[in-house]
Specification:
By secondary structure, the chain is mainly alpha-helical. The protein is 70% helix and 0% strand. The relative contact order is 0.07.
């Protein structure tokens, strides 16, 4: 159990590391070295113009860096939310062998595929458990290396699981009314009339009902 938990934590760290990696495009803003007065033959006008341009380039670069950092933080929060939801969904399944099913998925699926399941599925815990209990289906799914096609396959599988696990609505309670008294059964109508009588002080309906019951039993 401890080994499985350690492996899960390792997988989670790898997934989080991949998610947090933002593609670094070549920075279009070349800041360059901060101008010096001597670089412009001590021409103050040229120096001030160069310095102003340098500060503008630096502002643009800082703006790009701030935007990239914000994107990384948003991805971190989104990923943590997915992990939290996954943990909650695991607990709600209330199955004793979840770790075993989870271990099967960790062995068969790549880190990227696991990340797709955690991020794309509405209930990733249910998907993981279902695949872990069906290694044959899991192996077929693991053969799909294209992330987009894999995501669609997971979505299709989850839809099938929802249909399979949808609980049928319970049948409406049937109330059987008979004239014969069942041995030891509680007469709900009589009890209700007695409650009404106790509230109103009028026993007429109770007396009438008991007379009808006696007549029916003859």
């Amino acid at each position: 159990m401890r080994k499985t938990n350690r492996e899960l934590q390792r997988q989670n760290r790898e997934l989080q590391s991949k998610l947090q990696t933002v593609p670094t495009e070549p920075n279009p803003v070349v800041i360059g070295t901060k101008p010096k007065l001597e670089d412009h033959d001590y021409d103050s006008d040229k120096y001030e113009e160069a310095l102003s341009n340098w500060f503008e380039r630096k502002r643009q670069a800082d703006e790009i860096n701030t935007k990239q950092q914000a994107e990384v933080m948003d991805q971190q929060k989104a990923w943590q939310a997915k992990l939290d939801n996954y943990g909650k969904a695991k607990a709600e399944l209330r199955v004793k062998d979840y770790e075993d099913a989870e271990a099967v998925c960790q062995e068969l699926f790549t880190v990227t595929q696991q990340g797709v399941m955690l991020q794309g599925a509405d209930n990733s815990a249910l998907v993981v458990y279902a695949l872990g209990k069906n290694p044959k289906k899991a192996k077929e799914l693991a053969e799909i290396k294209d992330p987009v096609k894999f995501a669609f396959a997971v979505a299709k599988l989850e839809k099938e699981l929802k249909v399979t696990n949808r609980r049928a609505a319970p049948n409406p309670e049937r109330i059987v009314i008979g004239t014969a008294r069942s041995s030891g059964a509680v007469d709900s109508t009589l009890e209700r009339l007695r409650e009404d009588a106790a509230r109103t002080g009028n026993m007429t309906k109770v007396i009438q009902y008991k007379a009808q019951k006696r007549s029916a039993s003859k």
